[in-house]
Please model this.
Amino acid sequence: MSDATPRVVIVGGGFGGLAAAKALGKTNAQVILIDRQNHHLFQPLLYQVATSVLSPGQIGSPIRGILRKQRNTTVLLGEVTRVDSDRRCVFVNSLDREGVVVEYDYLILATGASHSYFGHDEFERFAPGLKNLADAVAIRNRVLKAFEQAEAEEDPRRHGDLLTFVLVGAGPTGVEMASAMADLVSRALRAEFRRIDPTSARIVLVDMGNRVLATFSEKLSAAAKHRLEELGVEVRLGHGVDHIDADGVMVAGERIASKTVIWTAGVAPSPAAKWLKAATDRAGRVRVEPDLTAPGHPEIFVIGDTASLAQDGRPLPGVAQVAMQQGRYAGTLIHRRIGGQPKPRPFRYFDKGNMAVVGKGFAVLESGRLGLSGFLAWMAWAAVHLEFLAQSSLRVSVFVQWVWTYLTGQRGSRLIVNHHASVSNDVRAASPSERQPIETR
Amino acid sequence: MSDATPRVVIVGGGFGGLAAAKALGKTNAQVILIDRQNHHLFQPLLYQVATSVLSPGQIGSPIRGILRKQRNTTVLLGEVTRVDSDRRCVFVNSLDREGVVVEYDYLILATGASHSYFGHDEFERFAPGLKNLADAVAIRNRVLKAFEQAEAEEDPRRHGDLLTFVLVGAGPTGVEMASAMADLVSRALRAEFRRIDPTSARIVLVDMGNRVLATFSEKLSAAAKHRLEELGVEVRLGHGVDHIDADGVMVAGERIASKTVIWTAGVAPSPAAKWLKAATDRAGRVRVEPDLTAPGHPEIFVIGDTASLAQDGRPLPGVAQVAMQQGRYAGTLIHRRIGGQPKPRPFRYFDKGNMAVVGKGFAVLESGRLGLSGFLAWMAWAAVHLEFLAQSSLRVSVFVQWVWTYLTGQRGSRLIVNHHASVSNDVRAASPSERQPIETR
Model:
């Protein structure tokens, strides 16, 4: 296809895909954004849903809401299963139909990443990971149920494994989860149980590396570790978990009995590389050209966690900032190409800095040569995250919630909801006879 | 059992159970409140979760949070399956154990109601009802997915049944749902689709009775109907649905093709009457004595939707106000009995009035001889509901959300989340060998 109006298909409505769509808002291209969720997820705050601070609705905003004023953009709910780069089309499983063909002139793959269990996929059953809202709600249910179960259990000898929480992986997610859980037990849950003492809960953070937040400077790593320990988190470094089952984990030959293990390590790329049959780095991410295109395909861009690109000899990290800047770059580049303008300079990431929060009123922050830990860094963290929350209504409600939680220790969303399985108009419930491939356009 | 400290077991943490627990807060009784959810649900606003205005966390508050300062009260998460009134104990299925025995000196059954499909339980599959947060989230998913599906469907002839929503039952829930859905399509979704026009969606409200909101005066019923029609809702009275399947409903011989049918009629009592082998009214509710006790059991109270009691010749309605006043009465009566004080006068319901909202800025209100419809009634509705929201933090966030939605038409929580099935520490996932009856106390 290729007529007057070129079509740009964006796969993924995360930070990268959304930035690309916005950069294309004022072009004469037709933009189709496809995502398997109806919402953009503000992933940096996902751990706050898992730890009951925020509601799912506070960090998820409908993609079509964000892009509603962009009249050239159509949003489709569906899962891309394949790319045919010769025919220039993607195949989409939509709600009730499979194999819908969507053609493109330009393609932007911003499909993100999922967990990696480092070859131990059998761990997943016992140690769920945290990538989307359903994961966060499932972990929230699990953590809160462990306390309920312990309260219902009158034999204190049985409380140990119920009140032991193991987090595997001490990157930002693991550290932020562990410290938020420490706050949860010491503040929100403290006075609410009669038979157990929630503050006796054991929170263990395990990592095979030698420090927490390994992407930060050694000094900040040490400050974060110190803070975690002050909060009562047991930090175990230098050994990964050797085994996980329903009753706990094995770490360096020691068994830690636990009914709740959470996986906060390991990132696996989305299957974009397979779709393109492209060369990847060791982690499985597509090695892209300096202009973010896939080698040999100047019409296909790969951005965010799905892409591998080195800058100044170091691979770019899988963070929101990189994805957003790459999305903006790809969108702008397509815009210029459509308009016949010269090619821009190669993509270059401008690193504004990195932050991680470690419990109430404490964060670590690194920006250029500046390293900061403590309350000031936490204020900066809160300001930046509020600023970036996509929808202004969310910003107000998150702010209100944070102030409330900060002052009272109370959490906003401590629900256990036993959700129904998906209902009959879900893709998986449709009978095969109802599904038929349909060509769009 | 019967020692120095009498034990009061309350089954159900709804409006009735919670009011009873609070009335017992300063007695020397030991109070155990058992609910199968960890949260008290502010049910009058449940339709706002189903229509994406509010997040589940905004209308659900953890019961143990509400009662945390009440040191004589223990909250247990579990489902009561049976009452043995001879042995004076209830049987509870807790998270991982079945048949836990909890003894009582006084028992308050406040177990509420669920849907009734009037003998057509096969309708449930196609027409889900709205009783708890999981229901509301499932309906929200379903409604939002219907629009997504229509947008993905390029053949406009296939949009009809996807964009037709049928609500069965024109009581408060049906009327409030229908008008909130009309607001949703005409305001929130309006500008967000490219291939469909959400305002073309058809919302049909069906009831076998001759008017909507039949418990209100005829004048207010007529005002509500008129308002619904102004909002674009088709109101079909005088005929129930004869049949429901995956493709729509049959009403008075006419087929209405619809992929989304919601059940807002019919209330079935909880099994409390069966537990007690007590006499019931036609609806299956336990006929209670004027002091709300079960006949022959001065130590067992039945309150709220589970109880049947006439006042001035008319049965009390199944509304939150009745449940709260009854809960308070039962708690106070037990308090007095424990203290050896004389019995209070029989329970008498003080009717503060009834309200139902019909879309943005319009409600009907009836209190004594006062009948009011329109904006003023809506202001009163909003004030009363904010006032009653259990937790003050919720009150702020709901208020912020309402103002936002009122001004912009935007909704706070328009997420489609494909929730995981319950995880392994759920009661249903535990293997039978792990479950063993355990006596408490």
